[in-house]
């Protein structure tokens, strides 16, 4: 799957319509193999993005959990830490 598609369920604040649409766009791009569709495929591509976004919204809205919502800021820090471990710390940009 696309690494850029993030988990959108059970966050505080909840996922926005834009976040859901961005995930749908990435999913359709992956399935189709197109970053940008040709003019001939543009309508089908956009329709697919709309349908995937609508389905994702219904899914997210219908899921239930007893777990506490995750905090976006904390999850972002954890992702940064995992990235630093995986790829190394960013290079220093001091003017020494």
Describe the structure.
The protein is mainly alpha-helical and about 100 residues long. It is about 55% helix and about 5% strand. Helix 1 (about 15-30) packs across helix 2 (about 40-60). The longest helix has 21 residues, at about 40-60. The radius of gyration is 17 Å and the shape is flat. It starts with 10 loop residues before the first strand and ends in a 9-residue tail after the last helix. InterPro entries: DUF2277. Pfam families: DUF2277.
Per-chain topology:
Elements: E1 11-12, H1 17-32, H2 42-62, E2 70-71, H3 72-87
Helix pairs in contact: 1-2
Protein name: DUF2277 domain-containing protein
Organism: Variovorax boronicumulans
Pfam families: DUF2277 (PF10041)
| Structural class by SSE content | mainly alpha
Return the string of H and E elements: EHHEH
Helix proportion = 55-70%
What percent of residues are in strands?
A: under 5%
Largest sheet: 2 strands, parallel
Mean pLDDT score, rounded?
A: 88
- Helical stretch tally: 3
What is the tally of beta strands? 2
Taking all Cα atoms into account, the compactness measure Rg is 17 Å
Span between termini: 42 Å
Q: Spans of 5+ residues with little confidence (pLDDT < 50)?
A: none
Q: How does the overall form come out from the CA principal axes? A: flat
| Largest sheet, spatial ordering of strands | 1-2
